[in-house]
Records
---
Amino acid sequence: MPIKAIAFDAYGTLLDVYSVGALAEEFFPGKGATIAAMWRDKQIEYTRLRTMCDRYADFWQVTGDGLDYACEFHKVVLTVDQRAALMGAYETLTAFDENHAQMTRLKAAGVPMAILSNGTRAMIDSALQAAGLEDLLDHVLSVDTVGKFKTAPEAYQMGSDAFGCDASEILFVSSNCWDICGATWFGYHTIWLNRAGLPIERLGVEPMARAASLHDVADYALASFSG
Amino acid sequence: MPIKAIAFDAYGTLLDVYSVGALAEEFFPGKGATIAAMWRDKQIEYTRLRTMCDRYADFWQVTGDGLDYACEFHKVVLTVDQRAALMGAYETLTAFDENHAQMTRLKAAGVPMAILSNGTRAMIDSALQAAGLEDLLDHVLSVDTVGKFKTAPEAYQMGSDAFGCDASEILFVSSNCWDICGATWFGYHTIWLNRAGLPIERLGVEPMARAASLHDVADYALASFSG
């Protein structure tokens, strides 16, 4: 089926969430990578628990909560300044190098594009600005508007609403396989940008397509686009 | 507030979910512990994603799915026989040594007791029977009845319904901190059996009490019981 628009996940997909690991390593020598990994895991875990129990707190809050847990688990003392620096790094995450060129290609072809992210509007805006991507997007959608994180259907609904078309006409792009499974269940045309070469999640659902880079994603989108 | 009954989580709380690690180690030398840990993580992750998206599949299914993912991630080949043996071990998980004596103490004092578990009825029954605990319980409650896993409110509701009293009159016992947070949000009187000495989850909610062993839990329950 032809696609009319693209919705991108932000964290992990356009923005490298593990780029904060270098700063964590500087603060906690030998433990930076494992702290950064647990930080990310807890952040995601907290979004799910809060959504299941209808106890929403925004992504800035759960990101800080995940950091605090990861530091306590690893028995490191996180000073106020270190916490501010790590949270600040999360606001200006490194974007993947290829993003700008590939999104510019899509923009030039007239493909409407959105971000659909768990992040707050402020977090997404500052990260996109730091990455120079903000002018390429037609919509910046934060789940903060609906008070439920992905993979809740209410979060995915925002994409169809913004573009005014059915989810099946929107290509949903994420490097997070769980996000792709949720989006596929919801009804999106999905492509899993499997940057890390991970196994597919065993959830009984498959993405429509797979890609190893945003270049592959853009090729796929341009071949399927009917503007 | 006095308590009228106790609801226990099963996996991790009465049954040692990492006891399958020894068999995994036998099959995959050097990788047993990490495979068992990822198996458990993925099992739990899948319960949440399926619940958020209303795509329930029972705990036997997600347990097998988690095992398959963990093996593929660790690049080990899982034969049909090995899979059957590991899944079989999950049906007869080792119970913690102290369980029988402490639950017998509670039973003798007339405290009504239930299991409230993500497991299927068949999985819980076989594990409780192997552990010799089945005669001590008044109710065995599986979320399979409601088609949503904990921490969904519908799952916690089963405990109040079974005992016919308010959640605040029931002591909810779990070694899984996320389960304790969900149960506290729901309204249970909660005690976190922190067997592993882990940090508390940063979810903005605290259990009413903490314990290091089931002996502590029984002491606490008997001091608060009004039969």
---
Amino acid sequence: MTFSLKDRLDASAAATEARLALALADAALPGERLRPERLMAAMRHGALGGGKRLRPFLVIESAALFGIPADQAVTAATAIECIHCYSLVHDDLPAMDDDDLRRGRPTVHRAFDEATAILAGDGLLTLAFDLLAGEDAHPDPAVRIALVRALARASGIGGMVGGQMLDLAAEGRFSGGTPLALAEDAIRDLQAMKTGALLAVSVEAGALLGGATADERAALLAYGRALGAAFQIADDILDVEGTAEEVGKKVGKDAAAGKATLVSRLGLPAARTLLDRLVADASAALAPFGARGAVLAEAALFVANRRN
Amino acid sequence: MTFSLKDRLDASAAATEARLALALADAALPGERLRPERLMAAMRHGALGGGKRLRPFLVIESAALFGIPADQAVTAATAIECIHCYSLVHDDLPAMDDDDLRRGRPTVHRAFDEATAILAGDGLLTLAFDLLAGEDAHPDPAVRIALVRALARASGIGGMVGGQMLDLAAEGRFSGGTPLALAEDAIRDLQAMKTGALLAVSVEAGALLGGATADERAALLAYGRALGAAFQIADDILDVEGTAEEVGKKVGKDAAAGKATLVSRLGLPAARTLLDRLVADASAALAPFGARGAVLAEAALFVANRRN
């Protein structure tokens, strides 16, 4: 290997952090009247200074397969990170998962208050589409609007938002409190929507930015879906094996809630086997890109073996 | 007058209702995995079967100034209505305005639960941008992406979301509970953001759909801003003078909360005078459109005199 994955992760994280900070500056943009100070502080708390920035990395590295420089992919990457961050802010709310800690810091509603956290999430979600609409996302309006469509589908009703709905239902929230005994397929649907869709659309965005052929786009989507599934299984394994200190949030939550995951359904050894197979599938999907696919293949391994 | 405003309001409301129902159908679209039943039911509860559909009317009638038929403007109109409906669902939440009643029916978190209401709002917000991304919104991607940009700016940090933040702050929510004694300018900022921005972007959307010149777009924006300000003053007057039965939601809330409005700041007679002036300003802004501007001019009168 002639590259360091850590260096590349760090580089895309730094570029994303800078673009996010610019997007969350205090000065109002054309079409805005003013930016309320408390709202901006809450949005910055929820979006800046933390996170692996895995989704931006996937956008930037997928675009790089087509020769697109990082500075031309970072705006779309930042838009997707805004969606990820808003989902964390809303999922952490007392009415949802009721978490006090995120990335080792107080969640937005703990650092501010519930109303502010709801609005900060709404603001980040809206900002994502604002970012995609600007010329710095891509010079061609047709590419920008394709990004809007792909991101809306991945993060809305039939994607991330729907996945969180299924997750709350799985906990038994709407059926008397007893967790649902979901079949393996239903767990896969839930996870593909809740976390997989946004990871998959990240590589799809890279394909759109790079003007990929239909075959290349399909290959990247297959990679993204395998990576997304691997990510969630790794997360479920960490919830069983990790410590709060490592992970930066509460662990053991799934078991405590009696929640159906692929780990609880298949058992730890079978879940590990499945995880290995998904990593292999992800790498295999990258075959059309030859040696250029090495960074994304290494990223799949990283996602499967991460400790936080 | 050779038209009936009521008939035109009814026609755009019916077209919007039909487009919304289609967008909120149970079947998953390409790029979606499945649409969870409870989420769809909550989104339909929050979006269908109620409301004046004033914003869609403004989109459709503004586009009509440029000869655009209603069926070519209804998708963008529906996108803006999705934003309006999501804002109501989130604003009604216990952590925000804590309302039990909306349009004479239980609010979404009362009919379902808080978590579902948060997700239904997130879903509607995301759906708005999905709708704008489709070819039925407009055949030209450049127009569609301009709509995305305008709507994101009007509804985000420096628009509607920011306005709700300022509104909560004005109630004294973050300063010990005593309502802030806002100056007239600060009240105008708050109202222009909280309700004015989305009304103004509705007519701006019509201008974008119609390929308006810069002058025509500026004229429509001036109309939209005057209309938005008039709408909010009429709302504040209704909160003082209306009954819950007429209005379909609690009244007397502003006075009970000691909230600064232009009515409380200026007194009822001066607020009425200002309202009349805004209606005149709105009509005057339509001068470039000659007789074709009559429907929108009549709409400004309607907004000022409405009882619900």
